[in-house]
Hints:
By secondary structure, this protein is an all-alpha fold. It contains 14 helices and no strands. The protein has helices spanning 6-15, 20-32, 39-48, 52-63, 67-77, 83-96, 107-110, 115-128, 134-142, 150-162, 168-175, 180-194, 201-213, 215-221. The relative contact order is 0.07. Mean pLDDT is 90; it is low at 217-223.
Amino acid sequence: MVPINSAHRRLLDALGAANSSTRLQAALAAGTHPDTGLVETLVTRCAIEPDFFVRDMLTWALTRLPPELTVPRLLAELRSERAQARSQALHTLSKIGDRSAWPAITRSLLHDADDEVARSAWRAAVVLVPPGEKQGLAAELAAQFGRGDRNVRLSLSRALVALGDVIESVLERGSASDDPTVRAHARATQRLLRDPDAGFDPDIDEAKRIAALGPERVEGTAC
Length: 223
């Protein structure tokens, strides 16, 4: 075992301090002065750190370390039972951008029951996907049209739009769905593809109106 010097020990203690500002400074220090001996500590801390800004700094610190050390440890974290561990590992992998991690972005992660894990998987997938597999990824993502609240749906749409024109066929199928929520989400995504600055809410609001009134009543009120 490599001995831990006093400076190293102080940093380890600070990463687990009660005060979030202290933890943030410690994570900043870990990235400013990269130390390969901290890989395990940083990854483990990502899984339990409650503060968003500290987690983001931990991710930055990990990106400053050699991918050959960080990526295998992050891939192992994708099998964790803790949702935050999976989510943060996916987020960090997307920031590292090492495409060797692509096979680990499994269908189960893309469809994870935890929305934050799924959203992180979508973002990582569009960064890591090889060009020849974009169409298949688009189909997996589009299968989740209508999932979750506005933020989840917007995340899914943005992930799809990041894939580019390969998503047009899945958007056409979604826009023709019998499910008004799926249809509205696909159409909102089409609008984002055409104009990234376009609004997202109107089609989603229309889907909610259809769900509340029923399609027959909506048609009856149309001008």
